Each structure stands twice: as structure tokens, then as C-alpha cells.
Amino acid sequence: MFGQLVLSGISQGAIYALVALGMTVLYRTTSVLNFGYGETFMLGAFSFYVFLKIAMLPFIVAALLTIVLMVIVGALTERFLIRPIMMRPHLLIAMMTIAISYLFRGATRIVWGKDVLPMPPVFDFPPIFVGDMVITSQSLVIMLAGAVLVIAFFAFFNLSALGKLMQAASHSPRGAALIGINVPLFSLCMWSLSAAIAAIAGILVAPVTLLYPDMGATTLLKAFAAMTLGGFGNLGGAVLGGLLLGISEQICGGYISTSFMDIFPYVVILVVLLIYPAGLLGRQEINRV
Amino acid sequence: MSRMRDPKILIMAVAVALLACLPLFVNSYIVYIAAMICINALMALGFNFVIGFLGQLVFANTAFFGVGAYAYSILLMHVGLPFPLALLGACLAGGLIGLIVGLPALRLRGFELAIVTLAFNELMRWIYLHSGSIGGGASGMGLRPATLFGYELISDTSKYLMILVVTVIGIWMVSNIAKSTAGRAIVAVGANEFAASALSIPPARYNILAFALSGFFSAIAGALFAILLGRVAPESFGLNQLLLGFAMVMVGGLGTVAGPVLGAVLLTAAPEFLRSIPGAEEILFSVLLIGLLIFMPSGLFGGLAALFPSLRERHRGKLS
After folding, report:
1. Are B107 and B173 contacting, i.e. CB atoms less than 8 angstroms apart?
2. Which of A266, A271, A272, A288 would you mutate first to test chain B, the one with the most B CBs within 10 A?
């Protein structure tokens, strides 16, 4: 049973890791914590559903269209909602992201009402048996796609010129502006990138869960737990935290009680932040006001 | 005393008297909405102590609100206290839980605090869900009607009048606290902790005070909410309730007394007109919030006060 729990934990954790990674990218590069990220993820999952099931497009086309759409949504959000108040205190920007979450949720509800949309699985391969463990094709796809994406992201961030530029600009926006980096354009790109990551997480999760307009909130809290566990603002920490959260959640559900599983992420947040706020990979940093 | 001749006091008194006469003119549905406005006004004022006056991103207020409702219900149904004592007990429980949440807030700031308090909310909701026979679990529990001077508050009108009285007293208390030395010390700590401590205002003490006051007033609102509904259930204390309170404070105006009340009136009444369209309420809230954040960050009341200086909340006292 242990192996089975770890496996399903990894496939669950891969989703948390992706959402936490998308939030951390934005937080690290623009120091905005996006409280509307859960809804961005939800919007991605819904658009994928529309392209795939209503427009009847093939999987790859639907996935690409979803990513393109969410990149545009991310760019529009930055340009028209965040940039006008970019110089204001962090508190106001955080509030703006909450307003954005309202907007996305309302827009989805107007179109879809209060229904819960079930989505049939996209891949219909037979499940794979390893010893006494079962891997469904869906969770295999999630794990593989998550791993490829995370590796590609870290290679890009650490090796490419644009990645170095991202590191520089996140380190000091003012310094970056002084050496000729277009910081507003950079911030726009980061919002788009983070929305694209949310879209991919949405695409991966849509076939295995039910879709409903309020699905973003729980995902947001789990992503917070993953970020906290891994070290707030640390990219590798977000991935590690997401995987650990997924695995330990499943183990807790399997051996202790499934009702305790629901609050596991919140307990993780409280314990980590109250006892060791730096998290696994983080450093104690000076708080921004 | 010049206070008695202050036209504002007279206007307030007339307004309260008119509000008390409201049930004579409208049906019980409107009376119910009016009672809900009062409750939300108190909740928004409680929320405002931490996000407005102290300026911290704290999301524990639904927990405070829920603790008020549950503490009231347990004191009334299990302990068997009379209604006024149960209400008082609920407020004290709220103040206490505010104080407890305020302690870690001394160490955590900014987003960490926001996340911890968000997690705390969900934790409390889980406790309500698994409260078994004490809190009624997922289905919640029904309450016996509150009894005041031998009279049972069953009709919407009688509940409304009681809630109105408590709300007026609550608003009066908040506005006095805001003007007091302690209230201004909280604002000072929120604006700049180091400058405040240089003025020999101990930041830790006023941080915790703001949390305790926030818990206290949110819990009154929670207890009144339980009375109005006649029952408590976990689903009333979810994320939606939190976002609603948040939107009220933001739309009305952070860090004022009139702002959250104005926000509560608008955002409780407006959704009633939009019930038939799912999602319209959220769109309205988001458009209001976005518009205000970009064009009028001090909220509707702040914008009004900028146009009409006589509305401004002056803090006469030792310092000015």
C-alpha cells in the first residue's frame, strides 16, 4: 500500500508543484503574491474543457490554444490591472489580485452557472502494473508532463540569456532598469509565463477532477502550503514542497484518517510558519513591508 | 457641553430613530436584509481593525466571526446561559481568539501572516465540521430563540430591533476607540512601527490589541448572525464570507469608521438585486474593487470625504 500511496501522492503533488512554481515565479520576479492564481488555474481548466469537449478539437490543439489564451489573459491582467497601481504599496496590489480572483470566478459562473462539469479521461491506455502497484495512464501523463516542464523551466532559468535577465531583474528592478532592461515589459512577460504554467496545470488536472468555479480556492491554499514547506519564494522549494505535500497528504489519508487529509495542508502551513518559517530550502530573509 | 449641540449627533439620532421605524413600512424580507446589513457592518468594522487601522493583510476574520456564532450557540444551548450573557460570552471568546491569533502575528509579517491566517480559517471550519454533538457537525445546530425580558425574539422585526440596538452601540464603541489614544496608537504602529516605538508606543502591545478588538467585534457580528438565522452551520464560515467582508472594507474605505459601514450597506443590498444571474454578484464586486483600487484607493467614503471636507473623520485629542 505504501508504494501505491507514494505514487498517487507524486501525481497529486506534481499538480501542487506546478501551481506553486507558477506563483513563485511571479513572486520572485515581481514580488507580487497572486491571490487570484487559483482562479487563473481554474480558468485554464475551463478553457481547456471548452476547446476539447465543446469545440471538439484534438488534444494537442486544445492544449496549445488554452496556453495561448491564458498567456493573453495574463498579459492583459498585468497591463490593465496591475501596471496602473504598480508603484503603490504591496497591500493594494495583493488586494487587486483578490479582485481579479472575483472577476475570473464571476465570469466563469456567468457562463457555466453552478454546475459541476465532469470531464472524461483524455487518454485511454490500459493501466500499467508494477509489482502490486497500479499506475493509471492519466497520472502517468501528469507525472511525465510535470517532470518535463519543471526540468525545461529550470534549464531555461539557469542557462539561457533571458533566464539570467529574469534573475537580474528580480534581484533588483531598479538596477535592471538602469542597465537598459525594460522592466514593465519584463513584468508583463512574467505574468504571462505564470499564467501559462497555471494553464498547463489546469490542462493536466482537468481530466482527473470535476470542474467547478470554486475549485481555485482549495488549489491556491495547497499551493501556499507547498511554497511554505519548500521555502517561500524558492523555485526549487516550490517543486519539492509540492511533491512532499502530495505524498504526505496521501500517506496521511491512507494510514491516519481521510478526514484529517482535508486539513493536512493547513496544518503544514501553521506548523512550518510558526516553528521554522524559512521552510526546507529557504533562507531567513528580511521582511518586505 | 458643545458635544450635545453638534449637528452630527442630532443627525445620527434621527437616522437611528428612522431605522428603528423601518419595520412599520416594509415587508419582513426587507427587514431581514436590514438586519443582515447591520451584522455585516459590525463584521466589516471588526475586519477593519487589522486590515485598515493596523494595515496588515490578515484573513482570520471569518474564523473570529464563526467563533462568535459557535460560542454563542454553545453557551446558549449547552451551558444554558440566558441570551445577553451568551452574547457577552461570545464577544469575549472572539476577543480571546483574536488575541491568540495576534501572538504569532508579532513574528510573521506580510504574506506569511496572510497565509497563516487563511490556513487558520480553514482549520476552524474543519473543527466546526467535526465538532460532533457539541457543534452539530456538518449539518450544524438549531438554536432556541433569544429571550429578552421574558419576550421571545422570534419575528424578524424583533430580531432586527435587537440587532440594530447592538449595532448602534458597536459602531459608537468603534468610533470612540478610533478616536482614543489606543486607537491612534494602533494606526501609528500600522503606519510605521519604528517611528511608533520611537514615540514610546510599544508596537507589540498595540498589535495584539488590534487583533483582540478585531476578534471582539467580529464575534458580536457572528453571534447576531446566529440569532438572525436561528441556527449555525459550518458552510456559513467559508472563503466566500471572508471575501465578502474584505470587499466591504475595501469598497467603503480602509481605516475609517464610516467606510466599512457604507461598504456593508452597498454590498449587502446590491447582491439582492442580482440573485437571478449567477456570477453577477462576483462581477459587480470585482468591477467595484478594481475601479476603486485604480482610481480611488481610499475607498468610496475616502472619495466622498475628499469632495466634502465636513465628512472627514477628525481625531481631536491630546495629539492634535
Report:
1. no
2. A266
Q: Are A263 and B123 in contact (CB < 8 Å)?
A: yes
Alpha carbons A111 and A107: distance in angstroms, whole number: 7
Three-state DSSP state, B77:
helix
Considering only CB atoms, which chain A residues are within 8 Å of B297?
Answer: 85, 88, 92
Mean pLDDT of B98-112: 85
Which residues of chain B make contact with A94, given a CB cutoff of 8 A? Answer: 57, 111, 114
Chain A closest CA to B104's CA: distance in Å?
7
What percent of chain A is modeled with pLDDT above 70? Answer: 95
Residues 6 or more apart in contact with residue A104 via CB below 8 angstroms: A36, A39, A40, A42, A43, A216
Report pLDDT digits (tens) over B45-89. 999 999 888 888 888 889 999 999 999 999 988 888 888 899 999
Cα angle: A24, vertex A92, A44; to 5 degrees = 45
- pLDDT tens digit string along A67-121? 999 999 999 999 999 999 888 887 788 889 999 998 999 888 888 777 777 776 6
DSSP 8-state assignment for residue A248: H
- Across chain B, mean pLDDT equals 85
| CA nearest to A203, candidates A65, A101, A7, A31 | A65
Q: Which of A189, A196, A198 is nearest to A163 (CA)?
A: A189
Residues of B in contact with A288 (CB under 8 A): 110
B278·A113 Cβ contact <8 A: yes
* pLDDT value at B4 more than 60: no
Give the per-residue pLDDT at A170.
74
Non-local (6+) Cβ contacts of A153 within 8 A are: A21, A197, A235
- Cell output for B163: 440587532
Distance, in angstroms, between B213 CA and closest chain A CA? 21
The residues, any chain, with a CB within 8 Å of residue B265's CB and separated by 6 or more, are B37, B41
Rounded-to-integer distance, Cα A206 and Cα A65, Å: 15
Smallest CA–CA distance, residue B76 to chain A, in Å, is 29
Give the range with max mean pLDDT: A148-152, B80-84, B92-96, B235-239: B92-96
Identity of the residue in A91, A265, A273 whose CB atom sits nearest the CB atom of B112: A273
Angle between helices A37-49 and A2-30 (to 10 degrees): 110
Nearest by CB to residue B116, choosing from A33, A265, A273, is A273
Task: Please state the rounded mean pLDDT for residues B160-188.
Answer: 90
Domain residue ranges of chain A, discontinuous segments joined by +? 8-216
pTM: 0.87
Mean pLDDT of A12-31: 90
Q: Which three cell numbers stand for residue B159?
A: 430580531
Asked if B118's CB is within 8 angstroms of A106's CB, the reply is: no
What is the phi-psi region of residue A67: left when phi exceeds 0, alpha when psi lies from -120 to 50, beta otherwise? alpha
Domain boundaries, chain B: 31-237
Q: Which residue is listed with cell 509540492?
A: A242
Report ipTM (2 d.p.).
Answer: 0.84
